[in-house]
Design goal:
Blueprint lengths: L1 H32 L9 H11 L7 H23 L3 H20 L4 H32 L4 H4 L11 H14 L27 H24 L7 H21 L7 H26 L1
Helix pairs in contact: 1-3, 1-8, 2-8, 3-4, 3-8, 4-5, 5-7, 5-10, 7-10, 8-9
Length: 288
């Protein structure tokens, strides 16, 4: 019980720091790959403080309420995961947070924001099947949806679920909002929708969205770690190394591929889900 409490508190306190540091490292590596020096790794924290200090421009009251709901459910998702709770409930909470985010964009009277919300819905349709298959895969291997039980297995889940792991890594490009799948919004306002789903957000509300994304990124890396952790102590070191490798891989993909249309994203994501995820789970069921 005490270990669960410690993990949850560490996530709530250190999650924003780790997420912001990852964002800073991301920008630094991206700049180096593009032949630039890049900003300091602490720049995301400076940007966040600047947003919190700006005057709040309220489009409508319901949008602020929905953004707060998005932030709360993202934090709840990560806290429940690091508490060792039910993985299905964790993923359902993540989906609910996404619904709040999309509804906030739809509440604004902006064509760019509405289009971004529609594309965000397409992204959700693309990655949700793989997310659910990942939860099912963990259950098939361990007989439990509890994160605490999965983390104490005799062998890492990735030995049984290599296809599910690769499929989850594929849809992480969508969740991390990396090119070629950053179709609803982009880190830079250089697409046809300006900033898409976040066009009408500014000041403290936009800062809350950025903070939620930091929490979410740490949670998603936690799911990656869950594929590698087991009862042996050395698997925790392996999990940390693989999280670093996977995050660098996503940065490399972001700087290598151009943005695709939503039809291509949906087709490829579902294809990978069917081939890598569903086939892998069926094989494991037959073996076990």
């Amino acid at each position: 019980m005490w270990i669960r409490i410690v993990w949850t508190i560490l996530f709530l306190i250190l999650g924003p720091f780790a997420g912001g540091l990852l964002a800073g490292i991301d920008r630094k590596i991206t700049a180096r790959l593009q032949g630039r020096r890049g900003p300091s790794v602490w720049q995301p924290f400076y940007d966040l403080l600047k947003l919190f200090r700006k005057q709040a421009v309220i489009v409508n009251s319901i949008q602020d309420f929905l953004i707060c709901g998005f932030f709360i459910f993202i934090v709840f998702t990560g806290a429940l995961f690091f508490w060792g709770g039910d993985l299905l409930l964790v993923f359902f909470s993540l989906t609910l947070a996404g619904i709040f985010f999309m509804m906030s964009a739809c509440s604004a009277n902006s064509p760019f924001s509405a289009m971004g919300a529609q594309r965000e819905l397409m992204q959700t349709m693309a990655y949700e099947p793989m997310v659910l298959l990942a939860a099912i895969g963990f259950y098939v291997c361990n007989g439990s949806f509890a994160v605490s039980d999965i983390a104490q297995a005799h062998l890492p889940a990735v030995l049984y679920l290599p296809g599910v792991f690769l499929g989850f890594l594929y849809i992480l490009t969508i969740k991390f909002r990396k090119s070629p799948f950053d179709i609803s919004t982009s880190h830079h306002a250089h697409q046809e929708m300006v900033k898409g789903i976040t066009t009408e957000l500014s000041g403290p509300i936009l800062a809350l969205v950025e903070l939620a994304h930091w929490y979410e990124n740490v949670f998603l890396l936690g799911v990656i770690a869950l594929f590698f952790v087991a009862s042996s102590w050395w698997t925790w070191i392996l999990a940390v190394v693989m999280c670093i490798v996977c995050y660098f891989f996503e940065i490399l993909i972001d700087n290598t591929f151009a943005r695709v249309k939503w039809q291509e994203m949906l087709k490829t994501a579902w294809s990978v889900t069917l081939v890598a995820g569903a086939v892998n789970i069926m094989i494991v069921i037959l073996i076990l």
